[in-house]
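Re-running the complex after MR caught last week's input typo. The corrected sequence lines follow. Everything else is unchanged.
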Amino acid sequence: MRAKAFMNPYLAGFLLGLVLLNTIYITGRGLGASGGTKSMVAATVKAVAPEHYANTRYYQEAEAEHPGSPLKNWLFFEIIGVFIGAFASGVISDRVALKLEKGKGVTNTVRIIASITGGLLFGFGSQLGRGCTSGSALSGMAVMSFGGIITMLAIFGSAYMLAYFFRKLWINK
Amino acid sequence: MGPLVPDIIGGEFNFVIALLIGIAFGFVLEQAGFSTTKKLVGLFYGYDFTVLKVFFTAGITAMVGVVLLAHLGLLDLNMIYVNPTYLRAALIGGGIMGAGFIIGGFCPGTSICALATGKIGAFWFIVGSLFGILIFMEAYPVFEEVYLADNWGPVRIDKFLGLSQELFAIIMTAVAIAAFFFTQKIQDHLHGIKPTYSKNKVLTYSGFAALPFVIIAIVALTPNSHERMLAKADNSALQEKAKEIMSDKLVLELANNYYNINLIDLRDSSSFNKSHLPLAINIPFDSMLNRSYEDYFKQHYKTNIFYADHPQTAKKAYVIATNLGDAETYVLHETAEQFDSLIFKAKIPESTASKSEQQLYQFRSTMAQNVKQIAERMQKQLQPVKKVTKKVKGGCS
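Corrected-run output:
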């Protein structure tokens, strides 16, 4: 079966905006993603090295904010939902398949190493910048946060500046 | 009035909501095409601007929606989370994230969507991001200085630029629409397409593009819920509906029934602190619409009685209170000063006074005595319970 076409981007954007607006109305806060990933990392550290967890200031400060388990975090439950929702959408539109997307000029190994490196940078940057494209840029824009909009400009600005150097990963030139 | 968390929805149920919202979020992201990295990075090479279109449309929709909900009095902007600005961390962190985006091909939210639809690159991206986060947390003391530098607090960009939020929303929408228009041109040029648009399509798109402007214009030109409420309070026909209570009746009620009454002093807090009627609590007229007092106007077991310096202020408060809730409400016919001189400074009648005057004096002085005693006993207990209106926490950190 052929995968169905993607939704009209403006319609998708409008719906995404409504999801975000609802989130702000119900919870007073925006959407997020990297915060959910962070709670998973913190929970793993707590389970694997409880002593280290108890002795490190950063974890203790996070613990004070989310008492109990690091997984008792709004964003953790939200990203579980994201996974379910995206899977459902993929199934409905016949888009679920194991696939490695890349430009023709690079090998699978290069693409995978680039993926890991990119993830490493994004994960690190999202912690330093207090949120990623969802939590800081998009949600920040909705509530007119200065910091959120600056983060957004920094993310897209830096990606544009570096795009030329990594073109082989994505386009066939 | 929103937000519903933490006052109306709380605790673990909030996590159920998080899951449901996440499902909607993930569904829309995937439908938009954010689960494929080719679409995501297309933005940076000019061949596919889907990300820009979806992202800005979503941002504008939510931004205009927030302005509209606040205008209608459905959302309390003082309560929502505004991402704080730490300038240096935002710039450096954003720069690093941008590099991660172009090298890895995803951002954290989209990588989850892509993993859900079987993209192998997304799996490795997530593995990388887990380690990226771990590095930051483990090496936090090294980055702490940058992380905490230039803390400006939750600055809003409209305030920073000295614009009204309506004007900023209009500018942002105009920028987005211009961006949509020109990026479409670039995209068509790169693909060598000479597109033709049907009249219907042009009309539909123009209509949708005009919608945010129309909403913002309505918000800018009509009074908001706060202003509408104050205008209502000025309506003398509504003021005349205020149920009044006379000083003598009030003092009798206070002496016998004080536990069923909220005697509310509408004057500002400095006048209140100087002197006030016994057993009174202070809700300054100007703060009546403050969310922390709404419980007084919405409860069903006590009678609210307003008094002020001017009888009209009390009547205005009556109009506002009965609009905010359906608690039983009265206004004191006399002013605070008149009450004081009638009851507490009641003059001993001349010996030639009639019997009824003598009785009235007897009544007033006894009641004044009783009320004073009760007030002394109750001193500490009766001040309004300051409801702590907690700001919502948010963000990704």
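None of the earlier attempt is carried over here. Strands of chain B lie at 85-86, 151-153, 244-245, 261-265, 280-282, 303-307, 329-332. The longest helix of chain B spans residues 165-190.
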